[in-house]
Description:
Blueprint (H helix, E strand, L loop, with lengths): L1 H57 L6 H7 L3 H16 L4 E7 L5 E9 L14 E3 L5 H12 L4 E5 L7 E9 L5 E10 L1 H53 L16 H28 L4 H15 L13 E8 L7 E9 L2 E9 L3 H19 L5 H13 L8 E9 L4 E7 L5 E4 L2 E4 L19 E4 L5 E5 L1 H4 L11 H8 L7 H16 L8 E8 L10 E2 L4 E5 L5 H9 L8 H22 L6 E9 L2 E8 L26 H9 L2 E7 L2 E9 L2
Antiparallel strand pairs: 1-2, 1-6, 2-3, 4-5, 5-6, 7-16, 8-9, 9-10, 10-11, 11-14, 12-13, 12-15, 15-16, 17-18, 18-19, 19-20, 20-22, 21-22
Amino acid sequence: MKNKIKASVLAFELILGVVIFGVMMCMVNSYVGYNEFKKELETMYSNITQQLAKTGASYIDSDKIPYWLENGPDEDWEATYEMLDDLTKTAELAYIYVTTVTPDYKSRTYIFDTVNPLVVTSEVIPFGKVSSLENKEKSYIDNLREVLEEEKGISWFVYKDDDGGHVTTAVPLYYSNGKTAAIIGIVKPMYEIKEYKQNFLHSTILYAVIFSAAFLILYTIILFFHTIRPILFITQETHHFAEHHGELSGILKKIKNHDELGTLAKAVEKMSLDLTRYIEDLTHTTAEKERLSAELNVATQIQAEMLPRVFPPYKNHKEIELFASMEPAKEVGGDFYDFYMIDDDHFAVVVGDVSGKGVPAALFMVITKTLLKDTAMHSVNPAEIFSYVNNLLCEGNESGLFVTCWLGILTLSTGELVFANAGHNPPVFFHNNEFTYLKTKPNLMLAGMEQTPYTDHTITLQPGDGLFIYTDGITEATDSKNELYGEERLLNVMQKTKGLSCREVLEVVRKDIDTFDAGAQQFDDITMLQMLYRGREKTDNDFSGDGGKSLKLPAEDKNLQAVNDFIHAKLPSDCDMKTLNEIDVAVEEIFVNIAHYAYGEGGGFAEVLCDFDAPVLRIEFIDSGIAFNPLERSEPDLTLSADEREIGGLGIFLTKKFMDSVEYNYTNGQNHLIMTKTIS
């Protein structure tokens, strides 16, 4: 019953989150759609009035304006007025006016003014009337300056709830010598916009509600069967395992997921089977005393084989140099170290110390090491990894064992090291030719208490920086007088290791411990791990410039990894894997399209601009290839099978789906495609 209650609360929280998200998306889509609709209408009205203004301007002989102002209207003025008046009525305009403006923009003189009585009730302003501009708003004066001084036509819009509003478009009139003579203004009412706006909002909201409701229902069903139910099964199995002394109920076999939950279920099942088998082996060994020594030797070998022993660990990653060792006080111990590549740019290193000695500590070490590695494969956040593993270790921990642990995840391309400390000794940090303790306030050890919060800390390693991570078997080693080795002595001996390899550093420290204890019995496991950060070597694909905000390189498929590395370096260290994968898919689609289609067989360059202004990531691709807007491509019909669908379109569809916004423009002979994404 307890598990069902927890599952119901989880289901409620997840479904409530989906509902809130759906409502927000419905509102956002409606708002964005209305804004786009409004922009299109404004563009349409602007184009129409710009053309009408140019037509009206063609009726006017600008060179005669000074003559009319001095001598008054003549036959040419009358003919021009009739044409402008006809244009006002046939185009259903409110009015057309032609004015000259004083250089100080304080007044203007009317040359022509037509009024459409079917549209407005205003009176015609007589020829030659001088009107003050001093009571006009600054924006209005700025519009006049832009028309007369920058010599371009502009439009501005006034919206009203009763009739929809109107648009005013003004263009300059020129003398035959090219100088600006006057302004012709076109005012057109926008009756249609009110009805269009209401119809658009009603239809948009209706469809948004229908589609959102359908999505929420479908997503809720998928969420329950794909996420909530597997979590319930895993929770039930772990409780069953703890309460029945390692016996499995078999419920995990019902989980068919191929994602992290499926991996976790298999890891729990495998861990349970391995642990049960291990306990049975040790029980049998205890009953057969004559085979105890041999069995313990086997256990020692097994434990040694579980720890990485190949150095250097990764020949294709020259960014790191590493060496480690673990010496148990008895045949088997509770200390452990581990290191592994999470992905091509993230390297994890962990050192832990289980309370107690012998077989129980070794078993708990196996569980902890396995859980840490399995969890780290799905996260690059040490605090998040510790929180998850701590809760698992607390379940059924009847023996009361706990683990002190230090976990760091290094981004090889940037040197950024994110680490968390669960009650462990502070590592020795070598930086700027100095050795210091990397001291932070440690959190509670693992398996000490459920729901314990853990904290991430971040430093940036420079090439040549190093870390010496160890267990308290070193600092708590005692000599014949029962005096402790201590942190100060360790720091002093580390001063003698400058310039040595990682293996040589461990040899120097171990030799100093032996000198100190003078052959006294070793009471605790001794584990040491030395890591040096060499930095990533420059390659032919390193084209970055301007402070690392841009990357220019040949538009070739082989350079995709360099683009990914460049963008990954801008992301926050706690960026989740799902978001990272979505960004990678979008980047690959755009860059590969440039590489394949922008330049034909001749080839060319692509420039990538990337900037992270928390919480928004902005990526811009620039190429000088043929003009092509991939956003105009029709979306694929996902209801058809892969064989029935037309080839192409799926990649840009996924790009638009994964990114918050995707925009395209063609400027100065270059394609610009800009993507943004909010990193939670």
